[in-house]
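Hey, resending since the last one bounced:
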Amino acid sequence: MTGIGGSHAAEQLATITPWATPAAPITQDERLARIEKARRLTRDSGADALLVAAGTSLRYFAGVPWGGTERLVAMLIPATGDPVMIAPHFELGSLQAEMQISADYRLWQEDQSPTALVADTCRSWGATTLAIDPALPFLFVDRIARDAPALTLVSGAPAIDGCRMHKSPAEIALMQQAKSMTLEIHRRAALTLREGIRASEVIRFIDEGHRKIGGAPSTFCMVQFGHGTAFPHGVPGDPQLREGDMVLIDTGTTVQGYHSDIARSYVFGTPDDEQRRIWDLEHAAQAAAFAAAQPGHACESVDQAARDVLEAGGLGPDYNLPGLPHRTGHGIGLSIHEPAYLVRGDKTPLGPGMCFSNEPMIVIPDRFGIRLEDHFYMADDGPRWFTQPQLAINAPFG
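The structure tokens again:
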């Protein structure tokens, strides 16, 4: 085993230092350019304004990293004119401290209706059609419809996804940092493995490692051994590692909100013939998916390329097991899963700046599973890896 075992958590944590070359934050000018693009896409969709909910899209446009709650915090972007923030009056100071663009504020008190404020603002603009962030809870959509019965509500996905799907060089740099940091923590986690170690010990190490290297705490961390690796999102419990077990670790962090999400699969000990055969098929399927990701091709073609390799190897077909039970990949950025998707039926054409996971997992029921997950972004002339794929089942990091 190359790079698996031989160390321990304390030794590895002692030598992790903050990332030496942090990527630059998103500038105000870039956020203003995003809003201008959103205006254009909103107009193209036939709407007069766009409502952006608290969450990742509000962070994308305004730099505000708040999640949604039962109190409406949102940004109205008119097709022409300045954005307006709809927010509770008592949150004004906190909101202004987070805002990274200029905007007007229309505030509501606790006994007032924020959706009525949305309706009144749209009426004052003469808006007749409002595009709604797909992530806005139905609770608010329903109330807006009741407060503004003459207002036509449509999906804001064409504007929001049209902006967020195509990452700028600054976004790609932030994602590169996040992914490079996670790969380094993956490498160190493999060194801490020993017979009898519990999954919870590895999870704790990975979280501490992400913090020490300069990322956020692990946004998620799945560590499975042996039989547990046959479940795409794992099984409950705290297994102990045994000789000959397949190891599947899937984890990520964030840098200024931008996600990493990397998985590695390898054997603790000597791989048997079946583990080697399935690992090789997984590796080939991941490579085929990457090669198929060409500008202008539909997202679904990448998924099909991976499935063709697996079916030629006797797996599947479709989602049947043994085989690949889920899509080949997902878009990634400020959300860990976001449009577009590498799955049958998604005909979105691949274009510059789009970023995806590449993870055509193979599941052998009741035995083991193998997921190799790296991410790529689309350049003008084709795909580029953020992290280099695993080279061998018994040498996960070269």
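The longest strand covers residues 246-252.

Sorry for the duplicate.
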